[in-house]
Amino acid sequence: MLDFTLEKYNKLCKAIVDSDYIPMSVRTFLEDQQQKCVILRHDVDRKPEQAMKVAEIEKDHGISSTYYFRTVSDVFKPDIIRAINDSGHEIGYHYEVLDRAKGDFKKAIKIFEDELKEFRKLCDLKTICMHGNPLSSWDNRDLWKKYNFKDFDIIGEPYLSIDYEKVLYLTDTGRTWNSSKYSVKDVVGVESIYQVKSTDDVIDLLKNEVSEQICISTHPERWSDNFGSWVKDLIWQNVKNVGKAGIVKYRTSFHD
How far apart are CA 42 and CA 61, in angstroms? Predict the structure, then answer.
């Protein structure tokens, strides 16, 4: 079976519900901090219709997860956002305001407030998650060095509010799993001790219960439902990974 397909994601969901782990959204985890859980988070960077398909798979398994939507016009689709929210999932705000404001914090927080209001016309939004553009020189998380997201009735940001010393972080960034070689911004400061190269490896970690708490972060557009789009995404991701690996190498050597 090919990896990064909706069929494979369905297999991952089945493994979660067949395990002793409790699947939950970011909001539920932050409010509850239950033991033995899998936190499911999705960054909707593009192709929101794929997010809808992933949400339907999870709903079929009785899983509730979190979907962080960007506000760019081809992603911020109110009908899809409402549908995912109505199916029992959490909607979050995938903010990129420091990028848009070109590092101007005052402009950035105003954009944040305005976009947050648009989300709250559609749902009860309580968590946010930064979008990491590998080509940008700004880190959107830095906004909270000057401001406090709790002032906006936000309970948490997964990069800042989850202790990854305790929670095993697994991400499909780069269409791989936990490859620091391709992660420019999607990093949590804790290196995984596990070799995870495929979704089957993730399933094995679940079966072996390697950690009491696990956070699985995916990008729905990477999970294809036909062979043509699978090949197209594979080629395009390989091209991007060459560039991302170069950025990571440059930044590492610059800081050494």
Answer: 16
